[in-house]
Amino acid sequence: MADVIRPTDDKARGMARGLMAGARFAALGVLLEGGQPLVTRVAFGLAPQGHPISLISDLAQHTQALRQHPACSLLVGEPGAKGDALTHPRLSLLAEAAFVPRGGPDHDTVAAAYLAHQPKAKLYLQFADFSFVRFTITAAHLNGGFGKAFRLAAADLLPGD
Fold first, then answer.
1. What pTM was computed for the model?
2. Which burial class, exposed, middle or buried, applies to 64 when counting CB atoms under 10 A from its CB (0-12, 13-18, 19+)?
3. Phi/psi of residue 41, each to 5°?
4. Nearest-5° angle of CA 158, CA 40, CA 53?
5. 122: part of which helix (H) or strand (E)?
6. Strand 5-6 and strand 149-153: pairing?
7. pLDDT at 1
8. For residue 65, what is the enclosing H or E element?
9. Mean pLDDT of all residues in the chain?
10. What is the pLDDT along the chain (161 residues), one digit of tens a residue?
11. What is the dihedral of CA 153, 155, 116, 113, to 10 degrees?
12. Do the beta carbons of residue 39 and residue 29 sit within 8 Å?
């Protein structure tokens, strides 16, 4: 069987970047203690450098999982209002999570970028158990619709690369 993955081109890069820029939430996949997978929904934004970010509570099971095992995945892209959900583009990001310390040198910059995209999250910043997590992309898989599959490198997804 021939490889069904198409060569990555500028159109695929643009579609992937557009999915990230337009996403307000994502499905986050983590590994729990003992190796059990967990998928949950998190709010989604982009840091000024283009890396995905989220604001999550220490009380959440996925937060504890990320602290134990930073390797994770994110899925962005929503089905349209009509048609088969599997024909709509979606982007799977493989990433490493790193928490942004409160009071750290880039916390305010990350917060400003996140709140520009998720203004209602301002309330959560007041709670001590919420912190930002930055996802460093290691690879990605773009399904641009039927028969449009691509593998992307991290550099394909960051602005200016």
1. 0.93
2. middle
3. -100, 135
4. 30
5. helix 122-125
6. parallel
7. 54
8. helix 61-68
9. 93
10. 567 889 899 999 999 999 999 999 999 999 999 999 999 999 999 999 999 999 999 999 999 999 999 999 999 998 877 878 888 899 999 999 999 999 899 999 999 999 999 999 999 999 999 999 999 999 999 999 878 999 999 999 987 64
11. 120
12. yes
- Residue 140's nearest CA partner among 73, 62, 61 is 73
133 to 55, 72, 95, 107, 113: CA distances (angstroms): 6, 12, 11, 10, 13
Per-residue pLDDT at 160: 63
Specify the residue for token string 């989604």: 44
Q: For residue 157, which of 21, 45, 43, 23 has the smallest C-alpha distance?
A: 21
